[in-house]
Design goal:
The chain has about 475 residues and is an alpha+beta fold. The chain has 13 helices and 26 strands.
């Protein structure tokens, strides 16, 4: 009897030792490579900030949102709705809760060529445009559907509702554009859907509030719209000389928590290294801080630029997009508080040799905030945050960390296209209009960060103009009060 009791005690002790060793291995792997070797351990240790796990609802709410919604009258006028607008919120909730689940659960009615997208957009519609093309693997994952059953589109760049295309009041025609093809769906309008009449009359209601925008290439055939060629999204311009838009002046600075200062070393390690703060070797100088071990290499520059590299080069399996995105967000989220509350918007998701490059820009109330590439003499604009990851771990990071907050309240700035073309461009960058046709890849208001700035800087709104050759920055002029 005593022997049996001793054997039971030994078995319990052995099981405790085995479990403890697995936990210790998991913690060690977590500190070395941003992830646990055994997924079930994250259920017990997920509070560790080295692996910050988001559920799909969090990802949808924080990142999977349209950049803007375009409402077209079907003729010459269009309106842009952005974050914070009541119609924007209503339409996106309807599409996210009602239309997307149907799109993910059925095959398209028709598949059309990319060349037909321009013809389709000549009718009245409400179109949701994303700043990046979202891979279908991620969309199906967020919507909790198996892509093997109904997958058609490769990604989502735009979703457009055409309320007048089907005479049946209980059906809406919807198109998904993925930069390669166009997918048509006939969707029955259920009880929880926004009524069809709302989409039919939205352009008319907006026209009574303010003049619409015009498609640049339609209003001025001398301009070639490269944005439409590349992303299927037209450049819209204001032809009304009184057209203005409110913008705030922002203040951008290196977060005080990570300023290079001897008194700040502990804060830097806590905010950058998180749970790895006591496991990496640290080396400080006036211009940078380096933290490393045999697998991880972090470098924080004086100007707030954070670089990270996973040192082993034996990575072969790139994994799938959804797992790579999870790794990317597990790196961003526990450090995102340093940004001062501005949003991060995904602007690129590209397959790389051993993973995926995922790029983000900052955004303030829907207006993008880019960065001038310090290594480019042409002043090329790049995403302030770029992360390469595979399904297992983050491999490389380049992040210009800035705390960005409103410094001055909104004022009206002119967005009149005529003033830009007739006065500002000829005065500042006449080479843009030297050769016809004039090719524009991008034309939008935004903010631009100076990547080399060490001290706090004010960000005022600019025109961001992209051509085939390069990008240009022209200050927006204040409109009439």
């Amino acid at each position: 009897m005593r022997r049996l009791k001793r054997e039971k005690i030994k078995s319990v002790i052995l099981l405790c030792l085995i479990f403890s060793s697995m936990v210790l291995i998991g913690i060690h792997w977590n500190q070395q490579a941003q992830g646990f070797p055994f997924r079930f351990l994250t259920q017990f240790l997920v509070q560790s900030d080295a692996y910050y796990e988001l559920n799909t609802k969090d990802i949808e709410a924080l990142y999977f949102n349209p950049q803007e919604i375009v409402v077209s009258s079907g003729q010459s006028s269009q309106w842009k709705l952005q974050e914070g607008n009541s119609d924007f919120k209503k339409i996106w909730k309807d599409v996210k809760d009602n239309y997307l689940p149907v799109i993910c659960s059925k095959r398209p009615y028709k598949v059309l060529s990319k060349d037909q997208w321009g013809t389709i957009l000549k009718e009245r519609y409400v179109r949701l445009d994303f700043s990046s093309s979202w891979p279908s693997d991620i969309v199906f994952w967020l919507e909790n559907y198996n892509p093997k059953d109904f997958q058609a589109f490769e990604s989502i760049q735009s979703i457009a509702i055409f309320p007048q295309k089907d005479v049946n009041e209980a059906v809406n025609t919807v198109y998904v554009y993925d930069n390669n093809q166009v997918y048509q769906y006939q969707i029955n309008i259920g009880e929880l859907f926004v009524e069809k009449k709302y989409y039919k009359t939205l352009a008319d209601n907006l026209s009574m509030q303010e003049p619409g925008l015009s498609v640049m290439s339609a209003a001025f055939p001398i301009f070639v719209d490269l944005s439409f060629r590349d992303r299927g999204q037209e450049i819209l311009v204001a032809l009304d000389s009184q057209k203005t838009k409110p913008f705030s002046v922002l203040k951008a600075e290196v977060p005080p928590e990570i300023l290079l200062d001897k008194k700040n070393n502990e804060s830097i390690q806590s905010h950058i290294l998180l749970s790895q703060k006591d496991s990496l070797m640290a080396k400080y100088s006036d211009s940078e801080a380096i933290f490393s071990d045999t697998e991880n290499y972090y470098k924080l520059h004086y100007n707030g630029l954070l670089e990270y590299n996973y040192l082993p080069k034996n990575q072969k399996d790139i994994g799938n997009p959804r797992d790579a995105l999870s790794q990317v967000l597990s790196f961003i989220e526990p450090r995102k508080s340093l940004n001062g509350g501005v949003s991060l918007v995904m602007t690129g998701f590209e397959k790389a040799d051993i993973g995926y490059w995922v790029k983000f820009c900052y955004a303030y109330k829907g207006t993008p905030i880019y960065m001038v590439d310090p290594g480019n003499s042409e002043g090329q604009l790049v995403a302030p945050l770029a992360i390469k990851a595979n399904g297992d771990r983050v491999l490389e990071v380049r992040w210009l960390i800035r705390s960005i907050k409103e410094e001055q309240p909104p004022e009206n700035y002119s967005i009149y296209f005529g003033n830009l073309i007739e006065k500002q461009i000829p005065a500042l960058y006449p080479e843009i209009l030297e050769k016809e046709p004039y090719q524009f890849r991008k034309l939008e208001p935004g903010y631009v960060l100076n990547g080399n700035a060490e001290n706090a800087t004010l960000l005022k709104p600019d025109w961001i103009i992209g051509t085939e050759a390069r990008e240009y920055i022209i200050p927006l002029e204040k409109g009439e009060k």
